[in-house]
Design goal:
Helix content is 61%, strand content 12%. By secondary structure, the protein is mainly alpha-helical. The protein is globular and about 50 Å long.
């Protein structure tokens, strides 16, 4: 609801009001639901490609470490959006698989950094390269500017959702 702009204080329904549903946001919700469902399935496949015993949820941690380098467990937990206990469990599993290792944080001797091992980096790199090749194949008929625009919009969406 909003004032109708004539100054008399009357309130009128707006297309943007929480009670109204507009087609664009219904369409967005539907398409994101499909995308996220497919992404979860793909993440499981990619995790198994890295290591047959790797949990699906841990794949995102490996990608983050591949892109950003060593990080504290608390930073990883905040980025992924999980609690300390969940992060500790996932990191222990990744260590046992030989994909990550902990090292002392040079900035704070009491803290530890998590980093990909050479084997972890190699395996994640292979899976990511195969995934990029699939995107290139599936989107070959798209103009590169459209691909760039989709990436830009998804980046903006992720940024908004992070808050």
């Amino acid at each position: 609801m909003h004032e109708d702009g004539n100054g008399d204080g009357r309130r009128v329904a707006s297309d943007a009001s929480p009670g109204c549903v507009d087609r664009e946001f219904l369409s967005l919700e539907r398409e994101l639901t499909v995308l996220l469902r497919r992404a979860r399935a793909n993440q499981g496949e990619m995790a198994r490609e890295v290591h047959p015993d790797l949990e699906s949820a841990a794949y995102g941690l490996l990608v983050r470490l591949d892109e950003c380098g060593s990080q504290r467990a608390t930073e990883l937990a905040a980025y992924i959006g999980v609690g300390k206990a969940t992060m500790s469990r996932q990191l222990r599993a990744l260590e046992e698989l030989g994909l990550v290792a902990r090292e002392p944080d040079p900035a704070d001797g009491r803290a530890w950094l998590v980093a990909l091992t050479d084997e972890g980096r190699r395996r994640v790199g292979q899976v990511r390269e195969a995934r990029r090749a699939r995107y290139v194949s599936q989107l070959a008929h798209w103009d590169r500017r459209e691909v760039a625009e989709l990436a830009r919009l998804l980046h903006e969406l992720n940024h908004v959702m992070e808050k």
